[in-house]
Structures are given as C-alpha cells and as structure tokens.
C-alpha cells in the first residue's frame, strides 16, 4: 500500500467522549495482547536498552497499554530480567493501567498526569517507545517527537503493528469487527458502559472500524520514517534504522529505532 491519507480518527478529537475512547482502547489492548503483535520486536528493544545502558522503557501514547505485558515478557526472555516500563499518554487511563500494574507486580507502572509525547518532562526517563500510535502524528509533530528524544539523548523506538498492506485494510473492516463483537464481554477490567456502547448503541465498534482503517492509511512507510528521523536529527547524533519484522503467524511490524551514536 503506497497511498498515505491524512484522514481524521475519532480518538484524536478532543471532544470525543472518554467512555467511547476507553472502550476502543480496551479492544485494541485485548487484541494486541492476545495476538502477541509486538513479540517480534523484542530483540530490537533489547538491543536499544543495551546500547543506551538502561533498564527502563518509557511508553508514549500508551492508550490502554495494549501489548505492553507481552513486550515485557518477551524482553525478559531475551535476558532483560530487570526491565520495567512506565506508561504515559496525553489522555491517561489510570484505571486500565492500575490493572496492568497489579498483574505485573509493579514492573509496569504509569504516570497519572497527562504527558505530551512531543515534550516529555525531564523526570520521565528511559528508552522511549510508541506502539500503534505514531501514525496519529502529522509529519511536523512526528519529527518533533523524534527531535525531543534526540535532545534528551535517550533512545527511541517507533512500532506499528502492521505492514501497511491492502489485506490488512480488508481485515480491519470485516473480520476484526466480528471478533470485537464476540470478545467484548471478556475484556478486563469490566465496564458496563462498554457493553452498552457495543451492543445497544454500537458506537464503539463503528468508530473502531473507521479508526482501524484510517490508521493503516495514515501509517508511514519505512522510507518516510527514515526521512522523519533525518529531519529530526540533521547533525547525525543518533544512529537510525527502519524496517519490518514478521510475526510467526504472518503479519508484520513496521519499526524505526534510534539511539545516540556514542553508544554504537
């Protein structure tokens, strides 16, 4: 898929009801975790942590924390036994994050205050990551996010759980909505509002179909990711690499990773 369209996503709109946004994020978290979407990039993260001599991941735009537990487990399987993760977002979801923190015995924590991924507060340290959310940022903002990581001298990894193919778009508007209807009762933590706005007033699934399709159309290609990195880091303070990692059952993860050159 070569086309890239800047259409809107409901979850980006400031007026969008938090209860609907939370329901959509709960679905995304469940699916990413159940499918182990980001397991293939564990070696990249392990290398990033090793290169930057860190044990802390700082997740930007974390949403409901989808897939973070599987990433943590995969990292520990790659010898990163002391790794911890802090979840942050411009629209924090402390209820969902507290549940994750409890299940992981504090290995995954969170920042309850709103965090702007383009200007991360100095007290929030660690190798920065952003999963399934980089496409939300237009080029100027995406460049600013990468530039902020360069300014702070910390590494950063950008990961999208798709390879940007037309088949993925077809799945987003056919198979995945059916899965959402079948699986919603099993999402945790339980929310009555999620059932109401899925089955009685199907706002959550309809908005999810739109946002899922638009996400693929808004995704950056690996060439575009490297161009953004060069714009953010014109003096070459970081080493950057972009590519795709295939999951064992077929789908790909598109990525951009970078860390300071002195850590090569």
Textual characterization of the structure:
- This protein is an alpha/beta fold.
- It has helices spanning 18-35, 42-52, 68-77, 94-103, 139-152, 166-173, 175-183, 192-200, 203-218, 222-232; strands at residues 56-60, 84-87, 108-110, 127-131, 156-160, 238-246, 252-260.
- A seven-stranded mixed sheet has the order 3-2-1-4-5-7-6, sandwiched between helices.
- The relative contact order is 0.18.
In short:
By secondary structure, the protein is an alpha/beta fold. The protein is 44% helix and 15% strand.
Features:
Methyltransferase domain-containing protein, seven-stranded mixed β-sheet, alpha/beta, single chain, 264 residues
Question: Which helices and strands occur, and which strands form pairs?
Answer:
Blueprint: H1 18-35, H2 42-52, E1 56-60, H3 68-77, E2 84-87, H4 94-103, E3 108-110, E4 127-131, H5 139-152, E5 156-160, H6 166-173, H7 175-183, H8 192-200, H9 203-218, H10 222-232, E6 238-246, E7 252-260
Parallel strand pairs: 1-2, 1-4, 2-3, 4-5
Antiparallel strand pairs: 5-7, 6-7
